[in-house]
Amino acid sequence: MEWIKAKILTTEIGAEIVTGILLENNISGMEIINPRERVRHLNETSAHWDYADEKLFDVSNEETHVIFYVTRDSEGEKILGTIEKILAQQKNFFDGIGSFELKKESADDNDWLTNGKNILSPSASEK
């Protein structure tokens, strides 16, 4: 099946607004990527590692983003259109929520299946 991977760029505060918008539009499966959370985790677990690249701690230019998937069909496009309209409206009401930009890319579940098989089965050269 073909999917559309949608990513909304925002902030920590904006992520809560975005998840509310998605839930109101019957999208319950989502992933929140928060670079500041990565830094908090690294700081909390620093006793358990010897080295971490300094670049991992520099999140000044990184936005939080919320990822979700819709089917690549008219229904999925309709959902994305609705969400884009709501994001545009909400952006004017709140400060500190980031760009609220919606980015889309193609995702095919056959790719996920193939990648999963590659992880679970060593290649012939590794045997």
CATH topology: Alpha-Beta Plaits
- Taken from the alpha-carbon principal axes, the silhouette is flat
Please estimate the helix content: 40-55%
Could you say what the CATH architecture is? 2-Layer Sandwich
**Main sheet record:** 4 strands, antiparallel
Let me know the number of strands.
4
For the record, what CATH class applies?
A: Alpha Beta
Structural class: alpha+beta
Instruction: Describe the strand arrangement of the main beta sheet, using strand numbers.
Output: 2-3-1-4
Low-confidence parts, pLDDT < 50 over ≥5 residues?
Answer: none
**What series of H and E elements makes up the topology?**
EHEHEHEH
Q: Residue-averaged pLDDT, rounded?
A: 83
Q: What's the CATH H-level superfamily name? A: ACT domain
Rg result: 18 Å
Number of discrete domains: 1
Give an overview in words.
The chain is α+β, with helices and mostly antiparallel strands and 127 residues long. It has a single domain, classed as ACT domain (Alpha-Beta Plaits, 2-Layer Sandwich), CATH 3.30.70. Helices cover 42% and strands 22% of the residues. It has four helices and four strands; from the N terminus they run βαβαβαβα. It has helices at residues 12-24, 35-44, 74-91, 109-120; strands spanning 2-10, 30-33, 64-71, 102-108. Strands 2-3-1-4 form a four-stranded antiparallel β-sheet. The longest helix has 18 residues, at 74-91. It is flat and about 50 Å long. The two termini are 32 Å apart. 14% of the residues are buried. The mean pLDDT is 83.
